[in-house]
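Checklist before submission:
- one chain only
- standard amino acids only
- sequence pasted in full

Submission:
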Amino acid sequence: MTKLLNVNFALRVVSTLVLVPLAVYVFFYAPVLIFMLGLALLGSLASFELCKMLDIDGNASVVVVVLGMFTPWFIYVRSYDIVSVSTVVVLMFVFFILKIFSRTPTGSVPQSVGYPLFVLSYAVLPFTFFITLKSYGDVYIVLLFLGVWGFDTGAYLTGSLFGRRKIVPLISPSKTWEGLIGGYVVSFVFLVVVNIFLGNIFLYSSVATFAVVIATSAFFGDLFESMLKRSVGVKDSGRTIPGHGGILDRMDSIIVALPVFTLYLMYS
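Returned file contents:
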């Protein structure tokens, strides 16, 4: 057991040392083509994990993964302004057709059609908000990642040391109100440090609001994925990242925090 833990820890370290610099390059320094390829890869891998978790029919899974790869490009060229609603309707009928010619055409029809659309909504579309967020400036991507990281770190440490009152034990027994408060505090501190480093370009009332928006949505993002994994009886969403689990395991908070934070910036 100890040897297995040591191997897993080593894999986590190696994965982190490789992926963190790669992510920094893709999000902040890479040309648009590489940035878009990164989003396409992220969407396709996340959708593949979720298709496996939900045991979606093979043909439907292929369609979803391919859509996960190309959806960011559709968003980037803004074709979604015209065809977004019709695309969803067409996809619904595509999944109906795939079900008709499957091995069990009359079994679980709503799930067979609805699950692939759910995968696209949960594991692909949220990541496309990086395109809009990046248009506001790289600093907002920094705020998002550090706000989420600060919340996760603060919630874990505070919950481990002082956690007593559980929030939703049926979904996540380790989450406590004390940890939640600690997460908010550390998220705010992280964003304050960023703001100071940047020369106080934001009012502190704005920084506080950013922290609340990011931390709250990160909290629910974590709970959403925990609820999903419990519903299908799995511990990890996949093994995409050695030593860490799946893409969805590492990005569960971002999946909600990214669109919520972006929409806040758009309409505030």
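Reviewer check: The chain has a mean pLDDT of 87.
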